[in-house]
Fold this protein.
Amino acid sequence: MRAALKMAAPTLAFERRLWADGCEVVVGMDEVGKGAWAGPLTLVAAVLPTDRRVYRVRDSKLLTEAEREGLFDRVADWCAAWAAGHASNDECDQLGMSAAQRLAARRALDGLGLEPDAVLVDGRWDFVGNGRTQTLVKGDATCLSIAAASILAKVTRDRLLRAAAGAYPDYNFENNKGYPCPRHKAALIAQGPTPLHRRSWAFMDNLGWSHLRTSPGPDAALPF
């Protein structure tokens, strides 16, 4: 086992306390894509069963892409329910990131088909706002349902960016997943933004494009 996976694993301690207090549907939530230049903001809501475990679940940031992909189906099948919610790049531009995060969270919770009794979210900010939310700093490293949600969210969003990469080969979306990197920046400087890009970022104002790409190419797929 790699050193990163030998670190303390996330546990069900938070969920068990809530189950003991009578909360039957305990939802763990995590997001991915907040710092990206392109693609959606993605949140996943995950409900874990009380009687089964999947091992080697960790915060998705500690896992390699191959490890996340290898765990995805196991985690998805393990969950009693899970759903992804997206806020598109245009919605991130139009609403701002905070409102976009709330929108994606609402879509994920609506997709569960279950009424949450409690929601556990990573970080300090309650982006759910239903009065039943508990924020957990480093929750993706300590809380098993949040860690599971982090894997499902990361793999779901990565697959969307890989699916869209063929329409925009110069931007290397299959590898950078819309995040900043030298090749991504060089493509933006040379060609301008694609329809997947968030144009409200201050960085975009300083690129000085000679032309803009404003519509998808004939093979473009925008599944979010």
Notes: Helices lie at 13-20, 65-78, 89-95, 97-112, 139-142, 144-165, 173-176, 182-191. The two ends are 35 Å apart (CA to CA).
